[in-house]
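Troubleshooting entry. Yesterday's outputs looked truncated, so today I'm pasting the complete records for two proteins to confirm everything comes through intact. If either block looks cut off, that's the bug. Protein one:
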Amino acid sequence: PPRTRDHDAPAPDPESGTGLDPLLSEADGLPSLDEIERRYIDYVLSRVDGNKRRAAQLLDIGRRTLYRKLDE
């Protein structure tokens, strides 16, 4: 989507994990997409002090969707 495009920013290097921390770490190898999503949700929740309403807004998903993803 255009709102996420940043043509001036360098693309993350998948080999080094640059730009993907804290979602990836060398000890984890390559996690599944579901695991990355879960880690990102946890990261966003930590940044908003556990406020699920605000986290859902930042993630651009509904609160019900956020709760469903947390239950998975």
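Protein two, checking that the full record survives here as well:
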Amino acid sequence: MHFTKKMSSFQNLSQVKVVPDFQSLVETPFKGNTNALCWERTLDGDFEEIVHQLVLEDDITEVSVEMLTSLKLTEKGNQAREIILRDMQLLADFGAQPSLNLLKKYERDEELDFISTDVYSYHVDRSPIASDTFLCTYFGAASDILPNHQAQQSILIPEVRGKLKSLYNGPEEDFEDFLKENFFDLHYEALPNAEPINLGNGHLWRLAIDQPFSEVLPCVHRAPQENGNYRLLLIC
């Protein structure tokens, strides 16, 4: 692997535990306030070269292994490609289904003006089975996470909750199910003076999600504003 170590940027954050390698990333349990694990790395290689050679077919293009290996790259570009392929193989061997995405932007949710349900808003992921979210931004703007005590669930904000109730026509006892079925309960607002943690480039992260067997709160996170720039993101 072509990466070097430096002093950790995340070591003193109670929400984040820094681990030394992939095995520790997948085996270390979440505990207490810690719901984000980081294999912190400074990667050698030219990931921008890969981005410039790939063809964006839509706002989000999934990059296959075949597409990646077909690129004619310099030595630095090839180093970057080897790292990506290695990360994908590690995750696949673990049993995950990694997806490498070249993206310009995600779809925005503009249907309701009082609550946002797209990935640019703070949110948590959910699964009916035991799982976590893995992600690494190789190039471009990186996601933010937020300590849970610095976030408020959007559906608990009185004004938002009142407007959601005005949309709902069913029995009162089924209102919470309505919120969950439409994913309103997954979204959060940052509290005043909240301090987001940027995930940076090159680090491989594991984030806790809302799932039946989790012993910690799910990690609140959001996608960054791309501002017209491309991102190269590995996620599963």
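Both blocks look complete. Sanity check on protein two: Residues 1-7 have pLDDT under 50 and may be disordered.
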